[in-house]
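Onboarding guide, step 5: your first structure request.
Type a short instruction followed by the sequence, for example:

Predict the 3D structure of this protein.
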Amino acid sequence: MNSIIMAHDQISIPCLLLFLICTLSAETVSHAARTAKFGEDDGAFMKRRLLDNGLGQTPQMGWNSYNHFPCKLSEELIQQTADAMVSTGLSALGYEYINLDDCWAELNRDSKKGGNLVPKDSIFPSGMKALADYVHSKGLKIGIFADAGTLTCSKTMPGSLNYEEQDANTFASWGIDYLKYSNMSKALLNTGRPIFYSLCEWRAKTIVQHGQVALETVEKQLETLKILGRDSMTSRADLNDVWASYAGPGGWNGCANNNIPLQIIKTNVNRGVTAPLLIGCDIRSMDDDTFEILSNKEVIEVNQDKLGVQGKKVKKTGDLESKKSSLGLELGAPSSLFPMPLPLEMVWCGPLSENRVAVVLWNGGSSKAKIVADWSDIGLNSSAVVDARDLWMHSTMYSIRHQLKATVEAHACKMYTLTYTT
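The system replies with structure tokens like these:
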């Protein structure tokens, strides 16, 4: 990640991530949907089984290899990352998953063992079970990536298409705790091991609808806009906003991105209110500014709030240039999203437990701006009096009436929690 350091209470955001810190994506045509269809009875049964396993009650937190180490995995790297997750104190804050993305397996399945996936011996000489044991010994969990095609995105390892049951059992036997894939929920359930299922697919509409119908614990990756070439987290956040009602305990919306510089991490966290927090940098060598952002307890508490309601955009002013693409429609994105202007100044908010409200004032423009959130914008009674806690400055403004306002630097944001005093 780039290490461009901004002022402590403002941070530049040419892009915005709703996973937030660094959610990953797998983008390839081999991720075409092969969705299972469940009837109402099956769906209710699936929901009960999935929620009973206790996973995904709050957004998942952890680390994924792909952003910083695309196809550069090794046993030593994963072990050292697990060590760093503990030694830095990040694990104590809730970051628990160490996730391997693409390029971990040999190109060919093992013909002597019924065609099982084989960890690449040159980089995982001790095998995947031993690596999982090591990660577990640190009090952490381990995740892995698979692909619903004949090959994965990198074309360096086999896909799991038509091997779902077999590969699910293999993952369970290794002690895997998290799987990024597009169609393996029933197979995972059948293993008897609680495995967090991160539903990853590049077609925006299909993936969210499938996640709802299958009632899976999912991280719903919305990749349409990357395919359109609009590599902007602002646009992805806007697209993700459409699916906010699908998020909640048992399944959370993620927003895919492969390269997010440090200067926008703070906004990534802000926008996430309740969304996956998966770090994508090298935590073994992160600087103090990166650590300070990733370890902000007040922001993490909002992200992990037990109410579990995703924040939404409630106000915008002005528009950035937008593009219209028939490709987006072909990929399943709602027609109402194209063209989709990008607002210059925005207010995002979401309810929290204990009758509080989280608010983000976000400046997407190229110059400083005053952003105002009137009580009517964020659903407060006109007579409400609140204390506003600035989660990055760790300071409180008391007895605020009628509106919350702040001057926000270009490509920057501020985040608050509002607590009623009357």
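Each response can be followed by summary notes, for example: DSSP finds twelve helices and 16 strands in the chain.
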